Amino acid sequence: MTMTATSDRTPVPEAQDADYKFSPKQALIGAQMLFVAFGALVLVPLLTGLDPSVALFTAGLGTLIFQIVTRGQVPVFLASSFAFIAPIIYGVQTWGMAATTGGLAAAGLLYVALSFAIRAFGAGFMHRLLPPVVVGPVIMVIGLSLAPVAVNMATGLAGDTQVMPKDTALLLAAAALGATMLTAILGRGIMRVVPILAGVAAGYAAALILGAVTGQNLVDTAPLASAPWFAVPEFVTPEFNLAAILFILPVAIAPAIEHFGDIMAISSVTKRDYMDKPGIQNTMLGDGLATAAAGILGGPPNTTYSEVTGAVTLTRAFNPAIMTWAALFAIALSFAGKLSGALATIPMPVMGGIMILLFGMVTVVGLSVLAKLGEALSEARNMVIISTVLIIGLGGLTLQFGEGFTLAGIGLSGVAGLVLNLILPKQRD
Questions:
Q1: How far apart are CA 360 and CA 156, in angstroms?
Q2: For the chain, which ranges sit under pLDDT 70?
């Protein structure tokens, strides 16, 4: 789940350029698409402790897998999903990195299972099983549960350690947050779809200037200096722990539904119905296999990036082969050790300032899903489901099933919403 940024002009082109035609001519525009996705792509591993180089590699690999499954028909780029940030953080703390990545791979296999269910029962199956009254509050829980993470980072607090004076940290966070906001609102052309990069650049510059003025060392350049020019990404061999898998699987509910919206969005841009051809069952299958591959290698789950869809809208670059180039550049950059070193020098409060906006926007996405209910939002049945999901997800309720298996937070709230929607009687007139 990513920060949506689209053009304020409605596209009206024909789709004659939406056929797959691979040639060196698309290399530059492909690099531009990766540039658009880069900020959000690397934020997820930086926040969760995963390797940014692995995230770059699995984003490229996942996009190529998606293109193979969909026969190169859909111009989308797949990369790190924000929906899994909180579960990854909790999973790494509870079961370790290997077990967590095993759970992420299983989430990809859930998408695969859903793709076959869509083949059997039709696309309406997903909407009946997971209507807005379930998906909306689960997305809100994802965003709101991350609020303490963003605030702690923005104030320079890592666990119980104050890694930077609070006042200084807040200044850096404010610079990053302000630049991200203004770029998203006032940016024109390609700048409008790279607000995260603008925020990082502004926060980084503020850290350098403030550090020079006050004599503080606010940017630690040691990781960059010690990083090699070429380095193989630190892939992780997954461990399939049942407790971790069952904790992470319910989180996949929201991104699975979001997939429908992403495919409809790119369809409207290119004037082609990708829901029909290659079919939502195949785009879901491609997304699932890409996410499973990412988890197996130690990367974050993949999702289609709305930033890149916005860039496609702006540039009218509909040829799916452009995304092949973006994927190849992502894989190539994953072996650039200096790039990972440079990312490690970004001051934590800079990231925190951007996170305040991004996690809030995830919550707003959930609200927009609920808004689709219209007047039905105030019906007793819907209010019961929404209220229960929100409080379970945000209140820290944990259920213990036997030894070593717990269901809590986002996962528990997702299961609760799914079950309540299935068992509660329909509203009587």
A1: 19
A2: 1-17, 402-405, 429
- Taking only the tens place, the pLDDT of each residue in 376-416 is 999 999 999 999 999 999 998 888 776 666 777 888 888 89
CB distance 248 to 84 below 8 Å: yes
Rounded CA-CA distance 146/163 in Å is: 20
pLDDT in tens, 31-79: 989 998 998 899 899 989 999 999 999 999 999 999 999 999 999 999 9
Please state, in angstroms and rounded to a whole number, the distance separating the CA atoms of residues 189 and 202.
19
d(CA 225, CA 207): 18
Query: Cα(26)–Cα(290) distance, rounded to whole angstroms?
Result: 23
pTM equals 0.86
Helix/strand/coil percent split, the chain, to 5: 70, 5, 25
> Strand pairing partners for 406?
400
pLDDT (tens digit per residue) in 354-375: 999 989 988 998 899 899 899 9
Cis omega (within 30 of 0) for bond into 278: yes
Residue 266 in tokens: 């790119």
Q: Which DSSP symbol is given to 276?
A: I
Tokens read off for 203 = 């926060």
Closest CA to 223 of 334, 49, 340: 340
The secondary structure of 133-196 as a DSSP string is: HHHHHHHHHHHHHTHHHHHHHHTTEETTEE-S-HHHHHHHHHHHHHHHHHHHHH--GGGGG-HH
Question: Tokens in use for 35?
Answer: 């540039």
Short-list 428, 418, 429, 427, CA closest to 382: 427
